[in-house]
Design brief:
164 residues, six-stranded mixed sheet, 6 strands, alpha/beta, 30% helix
Length: 164
């Protein structure tokens, strides 16, 4: 059984008409939400062996805050092609993972992250909010075989569920 953790980047500052979307950074709410999600995750779940992240500023910043807050010290790979990647492209990256990796995390953008979760669960899934984090258990033992059976949603964290 493999574990796939999918996180959407934190809430970002609004871009002006002359700013490039890929260069948008997290706003204060986004930074705070990501840190809270990382702390909640790290207190209950095993940290991933590998993090794969879009190279956009807001996903890279999400990754930095997540790793610092959760105490993650493992490998991180950044890919420019994951910026607003489709579910098909995200799944293509998953299929190429070595089987020695049991637990991997992707940090990316909607709609790709939500559609990837929906595709693997094989049931309807709502749009993931910013800083949302889903943990899927995949019944297959090889990454190349994922999708042959539905995944199981082991946990789902998002900022508004944790507000007092």
């Amino acid at each position: 059984m493999k574990t796939l953790i999918i996180m959407r980047h934190g809430h970002a500052e609004s871009g002006g008409i002359f700013s490039a979307d890929i260069k948008r950074n997290l706003d204060e709410r986004g930074k705070s939400d990501v840190a809270r999600m990382a702390e909640k995750f790290a207190s209950k779940k095993e940290l991933p062996q590998l993090i794969i992240c879009s190279a956009a500023n807001r996903t890279a910043e999400t990754c930095r805050i997540f790793t610092e807050s959760a105490g993650y010290k493992g490998d991180i790979q950044y890919f420019s092609e994951l910026y607003h990647a489709s579910a098909a492209l995200l799944i293509e990256h998953i299929l190429m993972l070595p089987d020695s990796i049991e637990n991997v995390m992707f940090i990316g953008h909607n709609p790709g992250v939500s559609k990837t979760i929906k595709s693997l669960l094989q049931v309807p899934f709502e749009e993931m909010p910013t800083s949302g984090l889903a943990i899927l258990k995949l019944p297959e033992n090889k990454w190349v075989e994922i999708g042959t059976e539905p995944a199981f949603l082991d946990a789902y964290y998002f900022p508004k569920q944790n507000q007092s």
